[in-house]
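Key result, reporting period 2: structure in, sequence out.
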Protein backbone atom coordinates (compact mmCIF):
# COMPACT_ATOMS: atom_id res chain seq x y z
CA UNK A 1 0.00 0.00 0.00
CA UNK A 2 1.51 3.37 -1.03
CA UNK A 3 1.71 6.38 1.24
CA UNK A 4 -1.26 8.15 -0.37
CA UNK A 5 -3.52 5.12 0.12
CA UNK A 6 -2.35 4.77 3.74
CA UNK A 7 -3.07 8.44 4.36
CA UNK A 8 -6.58 8.18 2.88
CA UNK A 9 -7.28 5.04 4.92
CA UNK A 10 -6.18 6.82 8.08
CA UNK A 11 -8.35 9.79 7.11
CA UNK A 12 -11.56 7.80 6.59
CA UNK A 13 -11.08 5.63 9.68
CA UNK A 14 -9.39 8.00 12.10
CA UNK A 15 -11.50 11.12 11.65
CA UNK A 16 -14.88 9.46 12.40
CA UNK A 17 -13.39 7.89 15.55
CA UNK A 18 -12.05 11.23 16.79
CA UNK A 19 -15.27 13.08 15.97
CA UNK A 20 -17.23 10.29 17.65
CA UNK A 21 -15.30 10.82 20.88
CA UNK A 22 -16.08 14.54 20.69
CA UNK A 23 -19.78 13.93 20.11
CA UNK A 24 -20.34 11.51 23.02
CA UNK A 25 -21.51 13.68 25.90
CA UNK A 26 -21.62 10.89 28.50
CA UNK A 27 -20.02 11.86 31.81
CA UNK A 28 -18.99 15.31 30.57
CA UNK A 29 -17.27 13.94 27.45
CA UNK A 30 -15.33 11.23 29.25
CA UNK A 31 -14.31 9.41 25.99
CA UNK A 32 -12.79 12.67 24.71
CA UNK A 33 -10.91 13.24 27.96
CA UNK A 34 -9.51 9.71 27.82
CA UNK A 35 -8.44 10.21 24.20
CA UNK A 36 -6.69 13.46 25.13
CA UNK A 37 -4.87 11.79 28.03
CA UNK A 38 -3.69 8.94 25.77
CA UNK A 39 -2.59 11.47 23.14
CA UNK A 40 -0.61 13.37 25.78
CA UNK A 41 1.20 10.23 26.91
CA UNK A 42 2.08 9.20 23.36
CA UNK A 43 3.15 12.64 22.14
CA UNK A 44 5.23 13.18 25.30
CA UNK A 45 6.94 9.86 24.62
CA UNK A 46 7.63 10.81 21.00
CA UNK A 47 8.79 14.35 21.77
CA UNK A 48 11.12 13.05 24.46
CA UNK A 49 12.61 10.72 21.85
CA UNK A 50 13.11 13.59 19.41
CA UNK A 51 14.77 15.88 21.94
CA UNK A 52 16.96 13.16 23.43
CA UNK A 53 18.76 12.84 20.08
CA UNK A 54 20.25 16.33 20.33
CA UNK A 55 20.27 17.20 24.03
CA UNK A 56 20.24 15.74 27.53
CA UNK A 57 16.82 14.97 28.95
CA UNK A 58 15.32 14.03 32.29
CA UNK A 59 13.83 10.64 33.03
CA UNK A 60 11.31 9.76 30.32
CA UNK A 61 8.69 8.22 32.62
CA UNK A 62 8.76 11.20 34.98
CA UNK A 63 8.43 13.68 32.11
CA UNK A 64 5.45 11.81 30.69
CA UNK A 65 3.75 11.71 34.10
CA UNK A 66 4.25 15.45 34.64
CA UNK A 67 2.89 16.16 31.15
CA UNK A 68 -0.16 13.92 31.64
CA UNK A 69 -0.96 15.51 35.00
CA UNK A 70 -2.14 18.73 33.32
CA UNK A 71 -4.83 17.30 30.97
CA UNK A 72 -5.82 14.78 33.65
CA UNK A 73 -6.57 17.49 36.19
CA UNK A 74 -8.19 19.64 33.50
CA UNK A 75 -10.54 16.78 32.67
CA UNK A 76 -11.37 16.21 36.34
CA UNK A 77 -12.05 19.92 36.70
CA UNK A 78 -14.66 19.72 33.93
CA UNK A 79 -16.17 16.37 34.96
CA UNK A 80 -16.37 17.12 38.70
CA UNK A 81 -17.02 20.83 38.25
CA UNK A 82 -13.99 21.75 40.34
CA UNK A 83 -12.64 25.31 40.62
CA UNK A 84 -10.60 26.42 37.61
CA UNK A 85 -7.66 26.99 39.95
CA UNK A 86 -7.22 23.19 39.91
CA UNK A 87 -5.87 23.43 36.38
CA UNK A 88 -3.46 26.21 37.33
CA UNK A 89 -2.25 24.20 40.33
CA UNK A 90 -1.61 21.11 38.19
CA UNK A 91 0.40 23.08 35.62
CA UNK A 92 2.37 24.88 38.32
CA UNK A 93 3.09 21.58 40.06
CA UNK A 94 4.40 19.97 36.87
CA UNK A 95 6.63 22.95 36.06
CA UNK A 96 8.03 23.18 39.58
CA UNK A 97 8.73 19.44 39.72
CA UNK A 98 10.85 19.73 36.58
CA UNK A 99 13.13 22.11 38.47
CA UNK A 100 13.04 20.23 41.76
CA UNK A 101 14.05 16.82 40.37
CA UNK A 102 17.12 18.40 38.80
CA UNK A 103 18.56 18.89 42.29
CA UNK A 104 19.34 15.15 42.13
CA UNK A 105 19.85 15.03 38.37
CA UNK A 106 23.55 15.70 38.22
CA UNK A 107 26.18 13.43 36.68
CA UNK A 108 26.97 10.90 39.42
CA UNK A 109 30.54 10.39 38.18
CA UNK A 110 31.67 14.01 37.97
CA UNK A 111 29.02 15.47 40.29
CA UNK A 112 28.52 18.08 37.57
CA UNK A 113 25.42 20.08 36.68
CA UNK A 114 26.75 21.06 33.25
CA UNK A 115 23.75 19.51 31.44
CA UNK A 116 21.08 20.64 33.89
CA UNK A 117 19.96 23.52 31.69
CA UNK A 118 19.40 21.13 28.78
CA UNK A 119 17.48 18.66 30.93
CA UNK A 120 15.26 21.33 32.46
CA UNK A 121 14.63 23.05 29.11
CA UNK A 122 13.71 19.83 27.32
CA UNK A 123 11.34 18.74 30.09
CA UNK A 124 9.63 22.13 30.24
CA UNK A 125 9.12 22.02 26.48
CA UNK A 126 7.54 18.56 26.69
CA UNK A 127 5.32 19.44 29.68
CA UNK A 128 4.04 22.69 28.19
CA UNK A 129 3.77 21.49 24.60
CA UNK A 130 2.36 17.99 25.04
CA UNK A 131 0.53 18.54 28.32
CA UNK A 132 -0.35 22.21 28.63
CA UNK A 133 -1.46 23.15 25.11
CA UNK A 134 -3.58 20.08 24.44
CA UNK A 135 -5.43 20.54 27.74
CA UNK A 136 -7.34 23.43 26.13
CA UNK A 137 -9.38 20.83 24.25
CA UNK A 138 -10.51 19.39 27.58
CA UNK A 139 -11.53 22.89 28.63
CA UNK A 140 -13.78 23.13 25.55
CA UNK A 141 -16.00 20.47 27.12
CA UNK A 142 -17.23 23.16 29.51
CA UNK A 143 -18.63 25.27 26.64
CA UNK A 144 -22.33 25.58 25.97
CA UNK A 145 -23.08 23.37 22.94
CA UNK A 146 -19.67 21.82 23.55
CA UNK A 147 -20.11 19.01 20.99
CA UNK A 148 -20.75 21.53 18.22
CA UNK A 149 -17.71 23.63 19.04
CA UNK A 150 -15.32 20.73 19.67
CA UNK A 151 -16.35 19.10 16.39
CA UNK A 152 -16.10 22.45 14.59
CA UNK A 153 -12.55 22.81 15.90
CA UNK A 154 -11.57 19.32 14.78
CA UNK A 155 -13.24 19.76 11.39
CA UNK A 156 -11.37 23.04 10.82
CA UNK A 157 -8.07 21.28 11.55
CA UNK A 158 -8.94 18.28 9.38
CA UNK A 159 -10.12 20.58 6.59
CA UNK A 160 -6.97 22.66 6.78
CA UNK A 161 -4.66 19.64 6.81
CA UNK A 162 -6.51 17.66 4.14
CA UNK A 163 -6.91 20.51 1.66
CA UNK A 164 -3.32 21.65 2.24
CA UNK A 165 -2.17 18.13 1.36
CA UNK A 166 -4.49 17.87 -1.68
CA UNK A 167 -3.59 21.30 -3.08
CA UNK A 168 0.08 20.61 -2.47
CA UNK A 169 0.02 17.24 -4.23
CA UNK A 170 -2.03 18.40 -7.22
CA UNK A 171 -0.84 21.99 -7.71
CA UNK A 172 2.27 22.50 -5.60
CA UNK A 173 5.04 20.87 -7.60
CA UNK A 174 6.47 24.14 -8.94
CA UNK A 175 6.04 26.37 -5.88
CA UNK A 176 7.91 24.56 -3.12
CA UNK A 177 10.93 25.49 -1.05
CA UNK A 178 9.87 28.89 0.25
CA UNK A 179 9.79 27.85 3.92
CA UNK A 180 13.12 26.66 5.26
CA UNK A 181 11.50 24.80 8.15
CA UNK A 182 9.69 22.53 5.70
CA UNK A 183 10.99 22.81 2.11
CA UNK A 184 8.45 20.28 0.79
CA UNK A 185 5.59 22.58 1.73
CA UNK A 186 4.24 24.54 -1.25
CA UNK A 187 2.49 27.86 -1.67
CA UNK A 188 -0.57 26.09 -3.05
CA UNK A 189 -0.51 23.83 -0.02
CA UNK A 190 -0.79 26.88 2.23
CA UNK A 191 -3.63 28.20 0.06
CA UNK A 192 -5.44 24.89 0.47
CA UNK A 193 -4.95 25.17 4.22
CA UNK A 194 -7.21 28.22 4.19
CA UNK A 195 -9.78 26.83 1.76
CA UNK A 196 -10.54 23.64 3.68
CA UNK A 197 -11.74 25.23 6.93
CA UNK A 198 -14.52 27.15 5.16
CA UNK A 199 -15.82 23.86 3.79
CA UNK A 200 -15.56 22.53 7.35
CA UNK A 201 -17.79 25.32 8.64
CA UNK A 202 -20.50 24.32 6.16
CA UNK A 203 -20.21 20.67 7.21
CA UNK A 204 -20.32 21.57 10.90
CA UNK A 205 -23.41 23.76 10.45
CA UNK A 206 -25.13 20.91 8.58
CA UNK A 207 -24.60 18.48 11.46
CA UNK A 208 -24.92 21.05 14.26
CA UNK A 209 -27.64 23.58 13.28
CA UNK A 210 -27.11 25.41 16.58
CA UNK A 211 -24.04 26.99 14.95
CA UNK A 212 -26.41 28.98 12.72
CA UNK A 213 -27.32 31.08 15.74
CA UNK A 214 -23.82 32.56 15.81
CA UNK A 215 -22.70 35.31 13.37
CA UNK A 216 -21.09 33.75 10.32
CA UNK A 217 -18.29 36.30 10.24
CA UNK A 218 -17.24 35.22 13.72
CA UNK A 219 -17.07 31.60 12.60
CA UNK A 220 -14.93 32.74 9.65
CA UNK A 221 -12.56 34.55 12.04
CA UNK A 222 -12.35 31.34 14.07
CA UNK A 223 -11.55 29.37 10.92
CA UNK A 224 -8.85 31.76 9.69
CA UNK A 225 -7.12 32.12 13.07
CA UNK A 226 -7.29 28.41 13.86
CA UNK A 227 -5.99 27.48 10.40
CA UNK A 228 -3.10 29.93 10.74
CA UNK A 229 -1.96 28.41 14.00
CA UNK A 230 -2.58 24.88 12.72
CA UNK A 231 -0.15 25.62 9.86
CA UNK A 232 2.32 27.20 12.29
CA UNK A 233 2.02 24.16 14.55
CA UNK A 234 3.01 21.89 11.69
CA UNK A 235 6.03 24.08 10.96
CA UNK A 236 7.03 24.24 14.64
CA UNK A 237 7.15 20.46 14.81
CA UNK A 238 9.22 20.43 11.61
CA UNK A 239 11.74 22.73 13.31
CA UNK A 240 11.94 20.42 16.33
CA UNK A 241 12.47 17.37 14.13
CA UNK A 242 15.05 19.09 11.94
CA UNK A 243 17.01 20.23 14.98
CA UNK A 244 17.31 16.56 15.97
CA UNK A 245 17.77 15.10 12.48
CA UNK A 246 14.48 13.22 12.76
CA UNK A 247 12.16 12.50 9.83
CA UNK A 248 9.07 11.28 11.72
CA UNK A 249 8.18 11.41 15.40
CA UNK A 250 7.21 7.70 15.26
CA UNK A 251 5.55 5.10 13.06
CA UNK A 252 2.23 4.21 14.70
CA UNK A 253 0.00 5.92 12.11
CA UNK A 254 0.12 4.59 8.51
CA UNK A 255 1.04 7.27 6.00
CA UNK A 256 1.62 9.86 8.71
CA UNK A 257 4.42 8.68 11.01
CA UNK A 258 4.02 9.24 14.73
CA UNK A 259 1.02 10.59 16.57
CA UNK A 260 2.80 13.91 17.06
CA UNK A 261 3.07 14.23 13.27
CA UNK A 262 -0.74 14.05 13.11
CA UNK A 263 -1.76 16.19 16.08
CA UNK A 264 0.88 18.93 15.99
CA UNK A 265 -1.65 21.26 14.36
CA UNK A 266 -4.31 20.35 16.93
CA UNK A 267 -1.97 20.96 19.86
CA UNK A 268 -0.75 24.35 18.66
CA UNK A 269 -4.10 25.77 17.58
CA UNK A 270 -6.23 24.55 20.53
CA UNK A 271 -5.41 27.49 22.87
CA UNK A 272 -6.12 30.03 20.10
CA UNK A 273 -9.47 28.46 19.21
CA UNK A 274 -10.48 28.17 22.87
CA UNK A 275 -9.66 31.81 23.65
CA UNK A 276 -11.36 33.14 20.51
CA UNK A 277 -14.55 31.20 21.23
CA UNK A 278 -14.56 32.73 24.71
CA UNK A 279 -13.87 36.23 23.43
CA UNK A 280 -15.92 36.31 20.21
CA UNK A 281 -18.86 34.16 21.28
CA UNK A 282 -18.90 34.89 25.00
CA UNK A 283 -18.61 31.28 26.20
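The corresponding designed sequence is given below.
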Amino acid sequence: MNKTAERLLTFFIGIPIVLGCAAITWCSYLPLHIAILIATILTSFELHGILSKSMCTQNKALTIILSALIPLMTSLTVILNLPFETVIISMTTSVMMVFIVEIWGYDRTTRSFDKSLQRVSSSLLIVIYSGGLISFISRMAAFSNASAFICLFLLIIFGCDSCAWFFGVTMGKNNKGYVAASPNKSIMGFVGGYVGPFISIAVAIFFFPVLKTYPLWKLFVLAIATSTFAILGDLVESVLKRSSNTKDSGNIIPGRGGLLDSVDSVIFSAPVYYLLVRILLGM
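The mean pLDDT is 89. The radius of gyration is 19 Å. This case is discussed further under Risks and Mitigation.
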